[in-house]
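We now fix the convention by which a protein and its fold are recorded. The integers have meaning only within a learned vocabulary of local backbone shapes. A complete example follows; check for yourself that the lines match position by position.
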Amino acid sequence: MKMIILVFVFSFLRANAEPKKEQNKAKDTNIVKTIVENSKVKKDGEVCELPKSDAELRKLLSPEQYRIMKENGTERPFDNKYWNNKHPGIYVDLISNEALFSSKDKFDSGSGWPSFTKPIRDQRVVEKIDSSHGMARTEVRSKKADAHLGHVFDDGPADAGGLRYCINSAALKFVPLEKMEEMGYEKFLDLFDKADWEKAKKEPYKN
């Protein structure tokens, strides 16, 4: 009889321990997942939680940046931050931190705005017909943040595809080559060569 009771008690304790074991296992899994996600946020500059409201967005952007990115504005030519920037690096979306353009594709168009022959990756920008101001143009927007960047024209260098992505400096943040790994953009380092590194070291970027 005692043996039967002991077997029963053992079975009862084991049955109740299994759910707790599974719960602890799930808890441990969630902890590991959180650690990995937090690590990714720290290491990957492109991992960014977009502003949840217009009020948050206005805190992030200056009035001029908001006017351009969310009200489809245009900054003045030759009077903006990056039109004449020749330092090697990448240009990222000011809202999402997503890399959009590379200095390897930047050229002097004489327009007074930063100009590129192509995006760093095609799927990162979207193009829309813009018939405002009595003109038919192709607008360029960042896909993730849905922000106005500028326009694309077909008067770019023929040997590079013939396109000119004319982009507002106020919609971009420049990440110099020597800071890319530190800021989480190491996956784009293979775009640059030895000459780019030598230039970056010889003439450090001054913000």
Remarks:
- Confidence is low (pLDDT under 50) at residues 2-10, 31-42.
